[in-house]
Structures are given as C-alpha cells and as structure tokens.
Amino acid sequence: MAGIELKNIQKKYSVENRVINVLNGINLQIPRESITVILGRSGCGKTTLLRIVGGLEDADAGEMECDVEHKTTFVFQESRLMPWLNVWDNVKFGLKKQECDKMVIQSIIDTVGLHGFEKAYPNQLSGGMQQRTAIARALAYNPSFIMMDEPFAALDYFTREQMQKELIRLQRDRGVSILFVTHSIDEALLLGHKIVVIEGGQIKAEFMLKADNKERNLLEPEFIELKKNIIERLDL
Amino acid sequence: MKRTISRISPFIGILIVFGTWFVVSRIEIFSPYVLPTPEKVLSSFSKMLQSGEIFVDIAISFGRVLKGFLIAFVLAFALGTFRILVPAAEKYYEYILQFFRNVPPLSMIPLLILWCGIGEVTKTVIIVLASFFPMYLNIVKGFTGCDKCLLEVGDAFGYTQFEKFTHIVLPYALADILVGMRIGMGYSWRAIIGAEMVAASTGLGHMILLAQQMSRTDKVIVGIFVIGIVGLVTDKLFGIVIKKLFKGTGENGWN
C-alpha cells in the first residue's frame, strides 16, 4: 500500500510583512489505489498541502518520496474549463494528439453522464455538468494520482451525492489514487479510506476506515462515533 | 412589428441626414460650392462609376490599406508575443512605444519622404504607424490578462511553456486580438488620406485631394462616402468571416 510519503513538509507565506506558517512539519503517508481525504476548516493549509503534493507549488522544506513515478493531475474547486472548447475538446485537453482514442473519450464522457452534450460549450452547461466535465478531463488524462480540491463544494446536495457515488465507483474501477480535500466531515466519512485531520498546519489525527465506501451509512453508530471524534480533534 | 422596426431603424438615421442635406441645399442657405446638392453628388458618382475610375481608386487604396494593416498586424502580434514570452524586456522599449503612440503619423510625413522616398513604402509606413498601436495594445492586453487559474490547468496536465501559450494564452486572448484587428482596420482606412497625400496619382485619398484642388466639393463628398462605405463593408466582411471561423466560442468582440 505504499504510495507517496511526505516528510516534514513546511510552507510559509508572507502577507503584508507578516509571516504565516501554513504548514508546520507535515508527515504523511498517502496510500496507493485508495481515497485519502484531508479534512480541515478553511485556512488550515489543506489546499496548500494538496498543491505541494500535486507539484503546483514548492515546499520551503521537507521531502516528498514516491515509490513509483506518478502521473498526477488536478480537479479544482471550480471547473476551470476552457470556455472556447466544447465538452469533447475540454475532456481531451490533457491528451497529446497521438494519445486521443475516440472510443475511450466517449466512454469517459458517458461515465460522467454527459452523453449527448459533447458539442456543448461550458457556458451552456449547469455547474454540476461543468464539474463533471472537469472530472472527465482528469480521467481522460489517465492519471495514477488525482488531486481533488473540494471538487463538489459548489454543487447542490443532490448532484453532490450523485457525484460522490460516481467518484467511489470510478476510483474502484480504475484503481487510481485520490487525494481529496474537503471541509465537510460527512463527505470525508463517505469517501475516505483514510481521513487526515489538519488544524493550524499540523496533522491532528489520522483515521483508517475499514468499511467499504460503496455502502456506508453515516447514521450507523460507528460513523457517528467517528464524527464525534473528529469534531473533538477539530476543537469545534 | 418590433422586428420590422429593428430592421428599418438603422436606415431612419441615414434618411434624416439625407433629408436635412436635401432640404438645406434646396433652400440654398450655403452656396453650392460649400454644400453641393445630393443630385449633383449622385451624378458625379454615377459618372465616376461609368468611367470606371472610381473602381481603380478603390482597388488601389484597398490594396494599400490591406498591405499596411497586415504588416502592422504581424508586427503587433510578434512584439506582443515577445512581450509575453520575455516580460523583462518590456521596460527597455516601453517608453519608446509610448512615445510613438502619441506621435501623429501625419507629422512623420516630411521625415518619411526624406527617408523612404515618395513611393509606396512611405504610404505603407504611414498606414502601419496608424494601425499598429491599437492592435499592439489590445494584443498585449489579451495576453497579459490571461486567467491564472486556466494557466494552472496547463500545469496540472504537464503542459510546457510553449504549449500553455498556444493552447491557453492565445485562445484566451483571441477576443482582444480580434477587437484590436477591427480597430486597426478602421485606423488603416482613416490613414489613407495621409498616406495618399504623398505624391500619389491614384487611390481614393488622391482623388479627394485632387478634387479639393479643383474645387470639386461634390467629388470630395463622393470620396468620403466611398471610403466610409468600403470601410464599413470590410468591417462587416471581417466580422462574418471571423464569426464563421470561431462559431460558438461566445464573446469575440464581433457579435
């Protein structure tokens, strides 16, 4: 279950002559082929951690070790689609010309439920459909590791629930590793194989969840207990 | 009803202008030399059409405008691209560009005649000087205004700097580039008189200047109309071609 290992990751930002320690020595094991959820309140450093793991930012200190060469990509909080490209072209945005297999792209578009919308432009789609296009774009890239930064935050309850189910299925079918950032405890409990609670730039707690994430019921005593536990750790 | 009104409304303004012109020239407030009657202008126009001279003038001026416009566009695009690829270089030439942006191309004519002669080169340079800056400024605005979030998507998918430029920055800037081209085209037409003041024997600008010397106000008005109409038609054609090319991509400044 080896994957990516972070050792003593540190990151500072200077804002108006004030130095803010965003990450204070993060040591973390991100297992392969599973969903690791980073949970924390806004401003706790979870997005920064994700961006460092994904290579969008450099850490000030610390090491990151990967057991194998990972092909990583991102799903951002906003869909970040290219407004001048239709759904089809947006989905194949990460692919080189010779990598484009029409059958594969079509099947990914079908998987995220956008069949029939291939020719539509982002401004003609609802927020949920845009986000699904962004997820399809990440999947088409065929990554071994996907960083997701609160990808469902902008969605309504029903779409979010449906997308969470789809994500669990996709992760299982394709065996990708996912690092998922969220501030929703319920979302973390629904998706995660591993939940990492971050507060003030430090890891407060780590939980390994044994129950199959395909059929979790958050009303079961086990999850209620876990939720209480997490809330305590977050000092809410 | 609404549709008919919106269809005829552009013509109402034109009708009012022509109506006023007709009435004012009929009651002879001004001498026919200052304001020739519409009939007089129309008859001169039809004579020029019959003799075919106007078509030669249009073709020649059009050729000059197009040549100047294209050179200016290539220069503006190349410099704009350079500006974005090597941002540090900007401070070395910024003031020079700002300086020339404020210098009217007409004021350069004496120097241009000395340096480039009285041939086609000088005429082209005047048009280039007039249309370069609006295009350059819009191209730079388009390039520098690129959404950082979209550039990060390029990073997330392992794009190189060059790929990010061709796949994200360039399409993002397209709307501004097209607006710049449209303004540049207009400026090219506006510069044609200045360009053809320099020892031209053909072209619409030359025609107007000759008519002025011959005191043929009617011909001057014909020339102004023709330049305006040809400019308008070019602009519309440009718009149609670009709408076809970039169908569905939304805002591109031409709709």
Task: Give a verbal description of the structure.
The complex is a heterodimer of chains A (236) and B (255). Chain A has two domains: 1-72 and 175-182 and 192-207 and 219-236, Rossmann fold, CATH 3.40.50.300; 78-143, no CATH class. Chain A is an alpha/beta fold. In chain A, helix 5 (157-174) links the parallel strand 6 (145-149) and strand 7 (177-182). Chain A contains seven helices and nine strands. The mean pLDDT of chain A is 87. Chain A has a six-stranded mixed beta sheet with strand order 5-6-7-3-8-9, sandwiched between helices. In chain A, strands 2-1-4 form a three-stranded antiparallel beta sheet, with helices on one face. Chain B folds into two domains: 1-30, no CATH class; 36-245, MetI-like fold (Orthogonal Bundle), CATH 1.10.3720.10. Chain B is 78% helix and 0% strand. Chain B has eleven helices and no strands. In chain B, helix 3 (53-85) crosses helix 6 (120-144). The longest helix of chain B has 33 residues, at 53-85. The two termini of chain B are 23 Å apart. The mean pLDDT of chain B is 87. The chains are: A alpha/beta (236), B mainly alpha (255). The A-B interface holds A 54-56, 72-74, 76, 78, 80, 82-84, 86, 93-94, 121, 123, 141, 147 and B 149-150, 152-153, 155-158, 167-168, 171-172, 174, 246, 248-250.
